[in-house]
Design a protein that fits this description.
By secondary structure, this protein is of the alpha+beta class. It is built from 3 helices and 3 strands, in the order E-E-H-H-H-E. It is elongated and about 50 Å long.
Length: 113
């Protein structure tokens, strides 16, 4: 078990988890607290729909309406965006029934703490 720090969102996590489960990290979208620390011009590029004089409440509202991922967003989930399919053990599947996924990628971004 090791502790890791994501170089993109700076989140820390253990893999495997204390209960033995593997952890697949995904950076969260940019939140209102991060937007408050950004220059106003950068915030307006991400959310042009903000009013001229915006408040913390406006930032929270737009974050809930539309999520924006940070640059170099990391998502270790095996097949992002591909819905799962429940099958019985003896079901036959055609090739058309299987989701198309790219080859697994090496997790080179993990940084031990």
């Amino acid at each position: 078990m090791g502790k890791f720090k994501c170089p993109t969102c700076l989140g820390t996590y253990e893999d495997p988890q204390p209960n033995g489960a593997r952890y697949y990290h995904a950076c969260p979208p940019i939140g209102a607290s991060e937007l408050e620390r950004m220059p106003e011009g950068q915030v307006r590029q991400l959310y042009p729909e903000l009013p001229a004089a915006f408040t913390r409440g406006d930032l929270e509202r737009v974050c809930l309406q539309r999520a924006v991922n940070r640059d170099n967003h990391i998502d270790e989930n095996i097949a992002p965006g591909v819905p799962g399919r429940f099958v019985k053990p003896n079901d036959k599947l055609d090739d058309d029934d299987l989701p198309r996924v790219s080859a697994p990628r090496k997790l080179t971004h993990r940084r031990p703490l």
